[in-house]
Amino acid sequence: MKIRESLFRLTHWETWHHHAKYIPIAPVWVWYIIRSGTPWFFTPSNPTLTFGGFEGEGKKEMYEQLPPGSYPNTIYIQPGIPFSEVENQVDAAGFQYPFIVKPNVGMMGFMFRKISNAAQLKHYHETLPIEYLVQDLVDYDLEVSAFYFRMPDQQKGIISGFLKKEPAFIVGNGNQTVGELMQIHEGIRFKMDEMQARHAANLKIVLAAGEKYYLSHASNRSQGGKLVGIDHEIDARLQELFDGFSHYNGKFYYGRYDIKCKSVEDLKAGKNFSILEFNGAGAGTQHVYANNYSLWKAMSIILTHWKMMFRISRQNYKNGVAYWNFTKGWKHLKAAKRNLMMLKKLDASFPSY
Q: Is the CB of residue 101 less than 8 Å from the CB of residue 90?
């Protein structure tokens, strides 16, 4: 079995560690560092996001730069405050269970949870040592992602990739347990230990025929999510919508929008949608996983995006947006990595409700 799994990994590059695909093209990144004279050449790509949105930026600063009403109702909870105060803030903001909680500074879906009652919220609040947000659960069925970039001196940008996303779930057949159904789910085959720990309380439950059980409510690949390319949906109306998002604050030039919507057609019409996040310079080009591309094609797409990020940053720098200095950037990146490792460790054992 181990030999079979190893061969599968070897022949399916999309199962490799997410940094592995960058190794052959790393010299290009180094070249951009040399040309810019700084390892943080990307920081001017989105001037109003911390570190250009590469890593360690807060979701609060991102939401504050999106059009009002375009993202879910959200409040921010400080760690360590009495739980009674948390409940007061939640009630005052008009939230009703279920809703979503996630760290203000986080990524890859770590510690993203759906909360259905006060006991679950209390457990989450007492576990997470950093600021987190409470957010309306958006009930639109479709989640999409659009990668977008625009040169600062241009009015129109480009949607370079468009895809739909599904969180990992299993469907009951009236015979097998949650644990047994998890064993045959392709999306989590290399995350089985983590998923079993997260769903330990439910592994022996037999799901009714047709009953859907979510293994994660985050659609990230790191959480077993499925990505399907829908580039054929890119048209002038979709382009105009994302140009509008970019121009609203005038400073979002490069990144990926994650959106829930009723349908792609409604999204194009500018209705029945909600922006979950805008991910800046550090946004993964997820569409390389969604279209069955070869490794060489995927690397070519990544290089195209690096080039655009470099060009955008360079132009903003010439327009007066400074690069982060080395010490500031190094300290920020180290802190962001510590935060990510802490969240990853908590996420591996924290229950999925």
A: no
- pLDDT of amino acid 164: 94
**242 near 134, Cβ under 8 Å?**
no
Is residue 27 a contact partner of residue 33, using CB atoms and an 8 Å limit? no
DSSP letters, 320-351, are: T-PPPPHHHHHHHHHHHHHHHHHHHHHHHHSP
Strand partners, 166: 226
Displacement of CA 270 from its chain's centroid (Å): 22
Q: pTM, whole model, 2 decimals?
A: 0.88
Q: By the 8 A CB rule, do 210 and 181 touch?
A: no
The two structure tokens encoding residue 25? 């093209």
Residues of the chain with pLDDT under 50: none
Structural contact between residues 236 and 34, judged by C-beta atoms closer than 8 angstroms: no
Asked whether 315 and 153 are in contact (CB, 8 A), the reply is yes
- Tens of pLDDT, residue by residue over 126-165, are 999 999 999 999 999 899 999 999 999 999 999 999 999 9
